Amino acid sequence: MLRSVLTLTVVRASMSWVGWFRSNAGSAVAADGAAGMAMLMTQFSTATAAIAWMAVEWIKHGKPSVLGIVTGAVAGLVAITPVSGSVGPMGAIVIGFASGVICFWGATSLKPSLDYDDSLDAFGVHGISGVVGCILTASLYQKA
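Predicted structure:
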């Protein structure tokens, strides 16, 4: 039973990752270089966040998990959304890395210390990565 739930989680995260391209690239309101750049920066940030979450989990627990990798990917998707069409490759990597590491902390350390009930880590992943993305948007935004 647990394997099938994990499989469905990976499938759902993968579908979200692909669907997020539509949202971020669609913000350009044209099929041009700006839309392509938004898609590429979404990919950079998401992959970096997944790898960052995996690395922190590997350091802390001695092994990475598939659930951690897809959770990190979701954190990267949320964080890059405000600035996907206006940031360069290094900015997207910084946003992805920060969201992966900070959301790992939010989901594994902040939740137990504040003792709030969030079985799906919605705040620890979506809430915190949204804040990280908004803060880094202001500092990494590049004029086009």
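Summary: DSSP finds five helices and no strands in the chain.
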